[in-house]
Amino acid sequence: MDKIIINNNLLPQSDYWDLITSTLSSYEVKDISPDGIVTRRVDNDDYFLANDVWNVTDIGQIPNFVEQFSKYKGTGKYIKFTTENHNIGLEIKFVLYHKLFSDELSLSSFFSSYKTCLHKLVLFLNEEHSRLSSLLDLDIEKAEKQWIWWLNNKGVKTTQTCKNIKYGEYENKRIVANFFRSVYEKLFTLTDTREEWEKDRWDIRVLNAYYGVDYNVSTTQYYIDFTSIENDVFKMHFKKYIKTRLLGGGKFSWGTAREYLKGVPKFLNFISELEPEWNDLKGLTRQHIEKYLEFIRHYAKNIKCVYVFLKDTQRFDYSIAPEKSTTILLYSEDYPNLSKKSDDDIDYIPEHVLEQLFENINDLHPDVQPIVWVAFKTGLRISDVLGLTQKCLVRLNGKYSIQTDIEKTYVKGHKIPIDDQLANMIAVLIHNSKEHSNDDNNPVKYIFVRYSGSRKKKPFSQHWVQEKLNQLAIKKNITDEIGNVFHFKSHQFRHTYAVKMLNGGADILTVQELLAHASPEMTMRYARLFDDTKRKEFEKVVKQGVFSFDLNGEIHQVSEAEDIPEDIMDMMWKDEKLNALDNPYGTCRARVNGNCPLAAEPPCLTANDGKPCFDLAVGMTSFDVKKYELLIETTTKWIEASKEYGREDMIKANEKNLERYQSIYETIKGGNVIFGRFDRLKRQLERKKKKGVTNG
């Protein structure tokens, strides 16, 4: 055999084995100074090549592992590579060597779970593939099935039942079942020396390191895969297109590239099936598009990606570009009318769920607790929370803010004001990050970071944060209104922040600015939700009881809730929103344009020949209760002061007012509303109906 065959990549055998043996003949030593500076040097020690038994004590003497070894409490002392075929042993060593020196594996994992898995894999290979020259000669799909079958025959469990709050119980492969494929794929990746762009499966971590392509470091979606595209010419041009867009100056993110991979390959394969002789799209017609639209009728949301790709092949002068203009190939009517979510569907966390969460917050994983507080108190997207660094806390004029870049909307230096409690928490996180960080384990200086393991140098993953929240929900039975265990999603905290800001009186522009929304559209969804919430609260208050002042100015109940017609309720709400004027005694329902000549001075309770104004409504808001509490308190003090000075006229006048205030207060404190004249509302509605007025 001259070459190791890796799909379409041919690597000369000598280069392949030279890569493996030269790697195992030395290792990189990392020396970390007290100030966190890392220096690297190569130790030309062939320990890992020459020995088929690796000892934890030997490895623990290498500076990279000294700290881990000092804390090592495992019982495993060695790991054996006793394959009958020497070459297979070298390949497995090569893979595990990389996992060890990249900190993907700790000493504990390496000499416990990996030791057990490796022992079984060696037995399997010795029994089933003793004459194999290289693991990469195997058809991994067939070999993995053989591996699972072999494990089951040996009595080794390969699956386990897991529970998911959303999907219920499901079967998942155990570590040992995945071990063979993980070794194979790691070997494949490490020995594929082509430039990343040449491969059919791109790793964003490589593209980021070598070409500066940005990505959301708190996700685990590292790959885009072009292998599903059947026509090699189409594949080549589509890869070229995605590369151009990722490296270009436009706003084409890794996440957008992944969306294109969902739609365009499906289209290209469909055309290949219709026109198997084609190696370009020059002959593409409207008829092809119509057949494709029929084919994907239920998955048409990716059609826009297809349109942009076809249009850009013409703009970029690709040799495969359609000859017909895309304007006559695809029309706007071809895009599916995806129903927009109702404003009621904004996925925020209800108040009673929040109460349960914060009651049990101390039982949440300690690393997730501060993440929840930051998300809840700032409204940042989870990706931006997890991307906070040691420089995120700023102070200006004695007030603290969080300052960070917003990835999704490309906002630099976005600031969000925070309270002192959260500022103190972040200060502690920054302090801890500085203490534990160096240029090797946290070069970006994140405050929510993994210092070792497969995510070393990266923030906690979004999936992990959400998983811990939902584990808490199950453990502490955090339920929704109907008693089901609540399913937490990390983005819900952002929605919750927006709703709370509006409920607290913040205006739309302020909320838009704090959330760093690129446009007001999303912010307006929150506003409509808030308006609907206010309407429901308004109806709730009114339906508790409607009262009115009678001809003598006395309060009496007009009707129970079921007696209030919907059109009356609707008119009351619109008037409340659009026309009502707040005053110290309630809410004046006369138009703001001046229907009440006495509004400048507040005789609203006596304006109608000593009786309340017909347009007065009291109890429309919770503030009215506080107003009358204050009026009762101040009037009582006036009476006391008047008695001290013997002012009988003042005593009499204020006692009469006090009686009015107390009568109104006793009515509205239970949530009732008093209208000047309820029948007046009915007459207003009739007049509006005659005029054809329907919107307030």
From TrEMBL:
Family named by the database record: Belongs to the 'phage' integrase family.
Start and end residues of each Tyr recombinase domain: 344-539
Keywords associated with the record: DNA recombination, DNA-binding
The keyword DNA-binding is annotated on this UniProt entry: yes
Biological process terms in GO annotation: DNA integration; DNA recombination
A Pfam family per the record: Phage_integrase
Name of the molecule in the record: Transposase
Gene3D superfamilies cross-referenced by the UniProt entry: Intergrase catalytic core
A GO molecular-function descriptor: DNA binding
Phylogenetic placement of the source organism: Bacteria, Bacillati, Bacillota, Bacilli, Bacillales
